[in-house]
Amino acid sequence: MSRRVVDIDRARPRVAVHKFASCDGCQLAFLNLGETLLTVAGLVEFVHFAEAGPVDPDAEVDIAFVEGSVATAEDCARIARVRARSRYLVTIGACATAGGVQALRNLADVGAWRDAIYASPQYIDSLAVSTPIAQHVKVDLELWGCPVTSRQVLAALRALLFGVAPVEDDDKVCLDCKRRGRVCVMVAQGIACMGPVTRTGCGAICPSVGRDCYACFGPAENINTPALGRWFEGLGLAPSAVARKFLSINNGAAPFTEAGLRWRARGAPDGEA
Amino acid sequence: MSETRNIAIHVPVLARVEGEGALHLDVRGGRIEALSLRIFEPPRYFEKFLEGRDTAELPDLVARICGICPVAYQMSAVHAIEALSGIDPGPWVRAMRRVLYCGEWIESHALHIHLLAAPDFLGYDNAIAMAAAHSEALRRGLRLQALGNDIIRLLGARSVHPVGVRVGGFHHAPAPDAVAALRARLEASMPEAEALVAWTAQLALPESDQDFVSVALRHDAEYPMNAGRLVSDRGLDIDAAEFDRHFEERQVPHSTALHCRLHGEPYLVGPLARLNLNADRLPAATRRLLDAAGLRLPSRNLYHSIVARALELHAALVEAVALLADYRAPGRPCTDAPVRAGIAYGCTEAPRGILWHRYELDAGGLIRAARIVPPTSQNQARIETDLRADLEAFGLDRPDDALRRRCETVIRNYDPCISCATHFLDLRVTRS
Question: Looking at chain A, which residue has its C-alpha nearest residue B147?
Fold first, then answer.
């Protein structure tokens, strides 16, 4: 992924917010800004942001924020058009960046799933896989998180308006816990926490409320998933339960897919792996 | 024979709804020949990938169905699991869950009233365009929305996909000083919520009179959120476990959301249906605002939905203030729920209406099957019925642009959350 900085020469840069397969939660990083939303709308021009009102999906923009994963044949064509019309493309959230929780279909027989839910599956346009945006087009910046925070989105936007490269933190949640003086839930309470392999940015909120991190910000840099899996096993988790820890919100992120499938195979009866 | 004219209008995307959809309208000889609300939000197969997961994972997974109402999904899920388990998490958990839900109602209703619906009634394309002329009203709305988010944050650490809820209660209890500080802000905001109700009541809302069935939860003493029986204004009075005997989901060719019908007929869920069935359960202060607003109930005018949302927002604020009074943190904020095999049912009032869950659990506490019926799939048939009646009363000979705006306004009355139901309005009108 390049860290190209976009040259924005307009006084009020043109911004689009596009939606693919998602829960709409990452767009709320804008819509939940309160009165700050009006300040942001003064700094940039939202030319396409369907949920907020402006609709012009094919407009040329300086910055495009993309929420959601590619899940249908039509999505494939649409993301190519978005890329062609956007100078700088930012993915927001786990769906756009890693395929989302719905990427669990990639590990299953999606045809059987569709047929189980819909009586007339021939009407449903659905690819066998749910994939991140970067698998289809060049992405300039990826913001992890399920959901991304307003702070992440505003920091990225502000950096781009300054003409500098946005900084993304890829430390582990553990470091954030230490900085905040939280007692480790795994060491102190034996709770199977994903903090050691998960990217920070959430504010270490789960350990802060006394529970396990469940990796909604995706993998951190330089992680040791085998060691964490063995820890979980030592805490009494069955291999299938260890697998589910990795195969959750960010199951489509490569280090988690790999670790999850390895534990799933260990948990399967002989011959079914 | 008169000259035949075919007009096809293509509006790229229905704005100001949560998700993506399209409307196809076929007009022949001055009458609506065909009308279908198409939902093409890509299916995400939630019900299938819940299979094989542990019930402890449910609150985090089902939240991802909807970024706007994750609390609703968490609530229906934990109530279902606890009902099967046979536990009662007690009064503190019950009160704090209601506070959490109040936060989501305030956030969701404020967002819908100001960012999605109000521009229709004030003649703007969107809220940002409305900002100059209606600055104070818009800013008040955004402040209330932020306040709702702060309530969710108190108990859930963040407002979208909060992390505080677990089967049996909460992971933590907020500190008394944090509760006291937020409660003071909620009390101070009461005049803004009152002003909001009066503001929605003076909007120039269209007249409409339609016959429809309202469905909501009903509780002995409370305005319904987490608990109650499922009732209608036509005599339905059932437990959530009896849902399948009265309601039927079926697929229609034009939608990735399944349509749900009650005894074969379309029905309404959401704020206006709740208000029609539960006005006597509103807090006294909200009832006074209802009387002052001059809204006569039951209402047969879906355009009153924006007033209903404002009233519910006020009621939620009153409730949250009351429930957080004399707050004390409990010894432990949750109760253990023993694992039991069987079928679990849960139904709560999401901001957009009843949200029904059904889970089959095995003896190890793993989910064998899941079914989720969200509010928008329940309202979908009602929206189509409403559009037919409304457009014929409005006049099909109007310009296409006026028809499109009218269709969008009707649809927004229901605040459809298409992400939940499975995307926005791509209107095609064919005339001959």
Answer: A34
* Average pLDDT value for residue range A171-176: 97
Residue type for position A95: C
Q: Residues 6 or more apart from A234 whose CB is under 8 A from it?
A: none
Q: Which residues 192-251 of B have a C-beta within 8 angstroms of A?
A: 250-251
The predicted model gives B153-167 an average pLDDT of 98
List where CATH 3.40.50.700 sits in chain A. 14-162
Q: How far apart are CA A219 and CA A200, in angstroms?
A: 9
| Residue B421 placed within a domain | no
pTM, whole model, 2 decimals? 0.93
**What integer pLDDT is reported at residue B17 of this predicted model?**
65
pLDDT the model gives residue B35: 83
Q: Is residue B323 part of a domain?
A: yes
Q: Would B110 be classed as within a structural domain?
A: yes
Confirm if A162 and A171 have CB atoms less than 8 A apart: no
A39 at B interface, C-beta within 8 A: no
**Closest CA–CA distance from residue B260 to any residue of chain A (Å):** 13
Cross-chain residue pair B49–A101, CB shorter than 8 Å: yes
CB contact under 8 Å between B163 and A209, yes or no, is: yes
Query: How close B196 comes to chain A (CA, Å)?
Result: 16
Distances (CA, A) of B124 to A54, A103, B241, B375: 11, 39, 44, 28
* A 136-175 residues inside an 8 A Cβ radius of B: 146-147, 149
- Chain B positions touching A27 (Cβ under 8 A) are 67
CATH code of the domain in which B201 resides: 1.10.645.10
Secondary structure in 3-state letters for B288-320 = HHHHHHCCCCCCCCHHHHHHHHHHHHHHHHHHH
> Which residues of chain B make contact with A40, given a CB cutoff of 8 A?
none
The arithmetic mean of pLDDT across residues B209-218, rounded, is 97
pLDDT digits (tens, 9 = 90+) for B305-346: 999 999 999 999 999 999 999 999 999 999 999 999 999 999
- In whole angstroms, give the CA distance from residue A42 to residue B240: 48
- CB contacts under 8 A, B 381-420 vs A, are 417, 419
Q: Write out the residue range of the structural domain in which residue B306 sits.
A: 46-377
- When the pLDDT of each residue in chain A is averaged and rounded to a whole number, the result is 91
Answer yes or no: do B45 and A75 touch at CB < 8 A: no
Closest residue of B to A29, CA-based?
B160
Domains identified in chain B, total number:
1
The dihedral through the CA atoms of B128, B130, B136, B138 has a sign that is negative
Q: How near does any CA of chain B get to the CA of A4, in Å?
A: 30
A137 CB neighbour count, 10 Å cutoff? 17
| DSSP, residue by residue, B403-428 | HHHHHHHHHHHT--BHHHH-----EE
Q: Which one of B41, B142, B171 has the shortest CB-CB distance to A210?
A: B171
Residue A196 binned pLDDT confidence (cut-offs 50, 70, 90): very high
Q: CATH assignment of A14-162?
A: 3.40.50.700
Min distance B327 CA to chain A CA atoms (Å)? 18
pLDDT at A5: 64
β-bridge partners, B354: B349
